[in-house]
Design goal:
By secondary structure, the chain is mainly alpha-helical. The protein is built from 26 helices and 2 strands. The chain has a two-stranded parallel sheet. The longest helix is centred in the last third of the chain and has 39 residues. It is globular. The two termini are about 55 Å apart.
Length: about 550
Amino acid sequence: MYPFPRMLEWETDEIAGSYFSRIAYENAVLSKYWFLKWLGISRNLRAAQIMDISELRPTWIGLSEKLEISLDDLIQWLSTKPYWACFYIQRQLSRRDLEALSRLPIRLDVVLAVSHPRLHLRICPTCLLQDLGGAAGVPIARRSHQLPGSLVCHKHGVRLIHKCPGCDRVLIPRANLLRVTSQCENCGFDLTQHSEPPLSCLSPIRKLAVFEHDCLYSSYAPRPAREIVAFIRRVCRERNTDLAKVVLRMFGPILSTWHRSTANPAPSRLFLDQETMPTLCACLVALGFSHESAQQAIVQLGPISNAPERSLHKIESISQAREIVSGMIPSTKRRRLSWHRMHRRSRFLFWFLVLKDRAWLERQLAPRQRSVLRIPCVSEDRQVILGSGSYDQRREACARAYYRDREWMHDSRRNRKVDRGKQLTAARDAELTNSIRTAMADWFAKPGRPVKFTLERAAALVGVNESKILNLNRRAPQTRDTLYESTTHYRLRVLLWLMKQKTAQGVLLTPGQLFKQARVAPTWERRHFWAATVVYLFGPKGSYS
């Protein structure tokens, strides 16, 4: 490792990749590979992305040691991890991994928080203009602009961009070490001149951006996501609010920007127990909370738990069910608990008592006003669960199957989950393959001497990490050597281009002359083979001599 002649201070709200890029360019190191090699990072760790921390890998620990930046500062001030840890969903790790992580000088809730970094970074044109006139005089990439729900700048209200408005090229791919510039390197478009009318401070989209920025710099202790879910449900019950309608009305068009499923890009329902940080922030904003007011309301309400609601999904004994129903019955004898109200409260509790203790339930509830309650058989429930019924019918069938056909239901869900995962992977692979082949066709159509379509160029043009393309080749061997150009194909393209150029000029070449001017043959022994092959297969008549 060689020490860098000049070390810089990071700017406020700067993301790690932007800071590392400024250090590299200040010391004339122009690629990520040589930057990590200069620092002494081992060769097998140099392929990792260093734009933002998604998982605490050895590369980040090595960067912390080599640059003499504490790991806590690196995560707290140069990454988006604090945002994802604000309402965290912890990963389940083994005891051995937890013991290893506990030795690091950083909080475990921040390290274990599940985060999803962006594939390409977003920038604000107004912030770029201010950076050029600031103390550093260099534009930076801000970490608050990379949060999933922040589609506008929280400070200026201007829409964030990740592609050049002039040529539609990705400005800062996450896989590369690129410096933020005020002009597009491809077409020269001045990004500081691209401005749109800012959104009002009362706009829900801008409120969401401000909320996420406050989460990133929150002074409150991180809270588990299940506690926030319980708080949201309690507020909705007190206000008698349909949360899904409110959230979808405010943020429906932009939910697909952070929902990671390509099969359902515009969700029509919300499942709070399964949602991640951005959706929870959107729910709190839709209910009228700021980050500060939400934290204070949670503190005032005291300990919040989903236990009362979740206990209705885990009825295991008749005595437990009777106790819950007794608490639901009104104290006045004039009113009796109706079948409809009990079914709305918990379908699991309702069907448990119908299947296990129906005689007692009929004595406690008011007489049914409709026809006799029909209980479908097990085979009918299985057909509905497998997809032959509506959404509500499947919910009812699952509630009944939980108590009389539980083993089969768990097996079917496990199989469907595996099939669903395969379908999503196949859909993502097909989309990525089409994007790369389109980019390859455009690359081959460029005039002038051919340039090799390498793996790095393929990843940069479509805005993904190189490992995704390599994983796609491993899952689909038939795509090998078709998503980026092999050396053989590139040499043939150069020879063919040169031959067509000389033919158009009326100059006839021998295979040896063609090879000598192309300068692409692999070895001295096979040089005439390559040139002669191209001329023989593609050349006009009379050019082979």
